[in-house]
Design brief:
Function: May be involved in fusion of retrograde transport vesicles derived from an endocytic compartment with the Golgi complex.
Number of helices: 7
Family: Belongs to the SFT2 family.
Keywords: Membrane, Protein transport, Transmembrane, Transmembrane helix, Transport
Distance between the termini: 56 Å
Shape: flat
Pfam family, one: Got1
Number of strands: 0
Oligomer: single chain
Helix content: over 70%
Organism: Turnix velox (Little buttonquail)
């Protein structure tokens, strides 16, 4: 009935809802998306490289390696959020064909930190970092 009233009164287009206004206000242009992708990816690579260098630091090297390497991977994965958008990326990550790989990668992110912080096992930390990759 409301649609009929709008058409008869000359208001063909629907009024934008609050959610659509928020989506339009927060959407980024293509150039901004590419810049965000490059910045996030560069930070991710830098953190991963820094983590690899910090592995050889005595005492706290293993913990620093695990933290920086994991943050680097999270930043690198987050960089694609700029190109695809968060919802589209999450939908693709959890598609049936990618579900196992996504679960293994997320589990390895957590296990890397657990093996460095609580178990203090260098071998396990390195194994989980390789599996993250």
């Amino acid at each position: 009935m409301d649609k009929l009233k709008r058409v008869l009164s000359g208001q063909d287009a629907e009024e934008p809802s609050g959610l659509s206004e928020v989506i339009e206000a927060t959407s980024l242009g293509w150039g901004t998306r590419v810049k965000g992708f490059i910045a996030c990816f560069a930070i991710g690579c830098l953190c991963s490289l820094l983590g690899s260098c910090l592995l050889w630091v005595p005492r706290k090297g293993l913990t620093l390696f695990a933290v920086f390497y994991t943050l680097g991977n999270i930043a690198s994965i987050g960089s694609t959020l700029f190109l695809m958008g968060p919802m589209k990326q999450l939908k693709r990550m959890f598609e049936p064909t990618r579900l196992i790989a996504t679960i293994v990668m997320l589990l390895c992110l957590i296990l890397t930190l657990c093996s460095a912080f609580w178990w203090h096992k260098k071998g396990l930390t390195l194994l989980f970092c390789i599996l993250q990759f």
